[in-house]
Amino acid sequence: MLTAVAGVIGALVIGAWVVVAWGSQRRQPWLLTPVALFIVLLVALGQPGWAFLPVAVLVAGSFAELVIGSRESPTVRTKDPDAPLSTERWAAAVAAPFRVALAEPWDVVARPSLRRRYRRMLEHQWGVTDRDSLREAVEALFEELHTGPSLDLVVDLRAGVARSRLPRERGGESTGARVRLTDDQVARLRAVTGVTEADETVLIGAYQWWKSVHVIRLVCGGASLDWLSPVETQTLLRRVASDLQRRYSSWQQLSTAFHAGYLLWPEKGVEGDHGGTDRVWAALGLLSEDARSPWNLLPWDMPLERVLPEGGVAFGQEP
Fold it and tell me: Residue 307 forms beta bridges with which residues?
């Protein structure tokens, strides 16, 4: 009787551990494999009482992975480093800071393990609860990007203040968006813009196109929740990629605009903060500096793929 109970409990615990380890996409939980095998061995040898000890260890390890694994420090992680270059991979790299912040692979568009997080984010930030509201939010963002005013961010590096304004040719009036910067933020802006210590002011032009990253996040959420088909996903990502390639000339320019826009983003406190540390800001730093970063590896001006109605892809052709 005890052997049967230990076998059932052991099987359930091992099954739960496998699900947690697979979903985490981390190497650490798989280090408990010998413990799982030890449970099977003890039950098979007729030592059910002793089997409950490794069962407890496996339960504790799985619980720790659920709690601690989700708080892993931002890390540049890639599911398939040798994957061929594609429009989907290029577009995923644009939104990489939000995946790197979670220590998730940046190169996976549809990520079922993040469904709960995407559902919460979509509803909280965009009011998106289904396919129709998702498409409306995406089109609204496209409309804002294409018809809204071009904005500059003026950063007073000495005073540590950044403010948004219209370009000088349009009056140079302040839009009211303003933020006080920390010493770390000032230092990061000096680094990404390439200004010297003697410079007191830096101008980041047309930074509002950083909002394209939100379109990609909406598309990734829709793909993960099965609200968008693969062809719809690729079509929208290609549209974003085409816009960005026309407006910026390098990943460095995108990085600068991303830093500027993120500083003024009202949701950054909700999305980025965790225990007093802004994980997205930390991820931006990693992507700017890490040699494994897609921003340092992928060519900016790669030819974009044409998405065909039947799902085929013709490389480098305009639709």
Answer: 313
